[in-house]
Each structure stands twice: as structure tokens, then as C-alpha cells.
Amino acid sequence: MSSQTIGGHRQPLLTNQASSGSCQFAEVADGTTAECAAVCCCCPCGLVNLLYLAIYKVPSTLCWRALRRNSRKKLHWPFHNRRTGKSSWPELVGVNGEAAAATIVRENPKVAGTVIVKEGMMVTMDFRSDRVRVWVDKNETVKQTPQIG
Q1: How many Å separate Cα 49 from the centre of its chain?
Q2: What's the pLDDT at 81?
Q3: CB proximity list for 78: less than 8 A, separation 6 or greater
Q4: 132 φ, ψ to 5°?
Q5: Is the pTM value of this prediction over 0.85?
Q6: What is the pLDDT of residues 54-87, one digit of tens each?
Q7: Angle at the Cα of 22 (from 19 to 24), degrees rounded to 5?
Q8: Contacts (Cβ under 8 Å, ≥6 apart) of 87
Q9: What are the Cα distances from residue 32, in Å, to 19, 23, 24, 42?
Q10: Rg of the chain's alpha carbons, rounded to an integer?
Q11: Nearest Cα to 142, choosing from 91, 89, 94, 105?
Q12: Using 50, 70 and 90 to split pLDDT, how confident is the model at 7?
């Protein structure tokens, strides 16, 4: 261990115990370095996250909500409160599918279109007041009562 001479007495350069009530230079430098790293690293990252939220996320979420709300209104707008004409055609069971579709469009002008569906085909479960599905078998004969939905 090296030592230094002060006033004729030799004293060690490094001590094993820190003096009470005072901090060593290394402790102060370590704390300052940690604070600088936090400020230099975390502040820019937080600022980038805030800008991303303000510029991209919030406007895109608001746009998607508005589009979803408008699409729901448009889907049922002409039919949700003024449904007129027939809503089911039990007399068409056993008739050719194409002839049944033409009859449905003729008897209810609010129906935008008919869909001819073969037995066993998968369809969506959504309800639309402007659509009629005509279920036919392999011989193109209507098997179920066509109805709005």
C-alpha cells in the first residue's frame, strides 16, 4: 500500500472506511452519471412516444370509430323503420330458384337483391333487411321458405 508524507507523518493514500457524514467522489460521480443517463435516454423516448400517440394513434382511432358508426347507419338506413311489402314467401317452396328470385323482387321492391344458395353452403349470419336468401337443392328447387334476412 502506498503512502504519503504529510507533516513528517506517513498516511495511506486510500482508506478502507469512508469518513462519517461525507460522500466520496466516486459515489457522487456515480449518482450524477445515472441521472444523466436517465435524462438523456428516457426523455427522448418519452417524447417520441407522446408524439406517436398525438400524431398517429389518437386520430386514427377517432377515424375508425367514425367510419364504423357511419357504416352501421348506412347498412340499415332505408329499411330500419319503414319496411313495406312481403317479408316471407312460403308459396315459393318447390318452385324453381330463378323464378322464385324474380317473384320476390317483383313483390317487394325494397329487396335490393336475392341470393340463391345451394343446400349445405356456408353463409354469413348477419341480418340485412334488403336481402332474401333462396335455399335450393341440387335440382335448383326451393327447399326452405325464402324470407328477409
Answers
A1: 19
A2: 43
A3: 110, 130
A4: -130, 130
A5: no
A6: 888 888 888 888 888 776 655 554 544 455 678 8
A7: 85
A8: 108, 147, 148
A9: 21, 13, 13, 15
A10: 40
A11: 94
A12: low
HEC assignment per residue over the chain:
CCEEEECCEEEECCCCCCCCCCCCHHHHHHHHHHHHHHHHHHHHHHHHHHHHHHHHHHHHHHHHHHHHHHHHHHHHCCCCCCCCCCCECHHHCCCEHHHHHHHHHHHCCCCCEEEEEECCCCCCCCCCCCEEEEEECCCCEECCCCEEC
CA separation for the pair 10, 4 (Å, rounded):
5
In sequence order, which residues have a C-beta less than 8 Å from that of residue 110 and are 6 or more positions away? 78, 79, 83, 84, 85, 129, 130
Comparing C-alpha atoms, which of 113, 108, 109 is closest to residue 133? 113
Cell numbers describing residue 94: 318447390
Distance CA 88, CA 133 (A): 10
